[in-house]
TrEMBL record:
GO terms for molecular function: acetylornithine deacetylase activity. Its cofactor is Zn(2+). Belongs to the peptidase M20A family. ArgE subfamily. It comes from Aquamicrobium soli. This is Acetylornithine deacetylase. It comes from the Bacteria. The gene is argE.
Length: 386
């Protein structure tokens, strides 16, 4: 394949509609073909349905510890957004490139791929790995299989760079992001005879009150020295569904809730406490009215926090490559915590800004792509001599 610039590559990548609900196999095939054009082999790691896949590739000596560039191929939906043009056909106005995913995060993917010829020009002493995932935007579901592949097939890596849009600033930490659903099952009946049923909404209300209590408790005890803007773990309920009519006792109620944890272990402790409250207080009360009443809580996703690791190899290199002195934290979650939890020093640094991502007429500045190419060039130079 001929060498494409990062802007040409971004144009191609944006052209694939990879909203998380859809298959990403076309973009994976494009990347695989592009890499194969340079003689670089890809490992395709499909999901259970076969409609989505991760792609992992290595340039350089895979048997040595190396560096990982990581990005997700999926993008957030455009539903309900009034775009000025087709979100999946990139357009340029002055120094801005518009299209879904330009910032989050196909701009980074384009820079990774544009770096391939330079990575191959001279032998690398340490390998550079490419990790392309699916389903990041719906709970970082795909990347786990990449991490599993890496830990089984490769030596431990020196540093992972996750290219979420940070304006090419160095981000060393973010909170975790955990999604849960609790389903409350009582017994439906007519509202004139509540004694014959078990009101699932009333009992869901008790459970939600318990969560409300956790939220207040955490807020009242901010963590000293926390690197986060909001220096405590947050808990919230975002969706409630239940009932069919005002004059009916609802037999079912479900609610979705969210935890943004500041550190590892917090989620497990909160969920255990919630389950204990449910098992000891709520379920016994429900079963007095109907023996088969249940409360079930399950995880929709559980993205671990990226815990700031001052002075880590990833942080030191990212500061040098990006020409930055400061390391910050962000409010959104990413795949970085999953790499870190597997023992790899990880940092988030990528082109574009989160304020420009996910929006109508998402865009990225050309200057951001140039900075990212500069970052990757410095990484390549480092990997040659490392
Ligand atoms: Zn992203």
């Amino acid at each position: 394949m001929t060498h494409l610039s990062e802007i040409e590559l971004l144009d191609r990548l944006v052209g694939f509609n990879t909203v998380s609900s859809r298959s990403n196999l076309d973009i994976v095939d494009f990347i695989k073909t592009y890499l194969a054009g340079f003689g670089v082999e890809s490992v395709i790691i499909p999901d259970a349905t076969g409609t989505k896949a991760n792609l992992f590739a290595t340039i350089g000596p895979a048997d040595r510890p190396g560096y990982v560039l990581s990005g997700h191929t999926d993008v957030v939906p455009v539903d309900g957004q009034n775009w000025s043009r087709d979100p999946f056909a990139m357009w340029r106005e002055n120094d801005r490139l518009y299209g879904r995913g330009t910032s989050d995060m196909k701009g980074f993917l384009a820079c990774m791929l544009a770096g391939v010829p330079a990575m191959l020009k001279e032998p690398l002493a340490a390998p550079i790995h490419f990790a392309f995932s699916y389903d990041e935007e719906v709970g970082c579901l795909g990347v786990y299989d990449i991490v599993e592949h890496m830990t089984k097939a490769l030596p431990p890596q020196l540093a992972v760079f996750v290219g979420e849009p940070t304006g090419m600033g160095v981000v060393g930490g973010h909170k975790g992001s955990t999604g849960l659903i609790t389903t409350v099952t009582g017994k439906a009946c007519h509202s004139s005879r509540p004694d014959l049923g078990v009101n699932a909404i009333f009992h869901a209300h008790d459970l939600i009150g318990e969560l409300h209590g956790y939220a207040a408790e955490l807020r009242a005890a901010p963590e000293a020295g926390s690197p986060f803007e909001l220096p405590y773990t947050t808990v919230s309920v975002g969706v409630i569904q239940g009932g069919t009519a005002r004059n009916a006792i609802p037999g079912d109620c479900a609610f979705q809730w969210d935890i943004r944890a500041t550190k590892a272990g917090v989620v497990e402790a909160l969920v255990e406490r919630f389950r204990a409250f449910s098992d000891e207080k709520v379920v016994p009360a429900m079963r007095q009215g109907f023996a088969d009443s249940t409360v079930a809580t399950s995880f929709a996703y559980d993205v671990p926090p990226l815990v700031p690791d001052a002075g880590s190899h990833a942080e030191t290199l990212a500061k040098r490559f990006a020409g930055r002195n400061e390391v910050t934290t962000v409010n959104y979650g990413s795949e970085a915590g999953i790499f870190q939890a597997a023992g790899m020093p990880t940092i988030v640094c990528g082109p574009g800004r989160d304020s420009e991502a996910h929006i109508t007429d998402e865009w990225i500045a050309v200057e951001q792509l140039e900075r990212c190419v500069g970052f990757i060039d410095k990484l390549i130079d480092h990997a040659r001599h490392a």
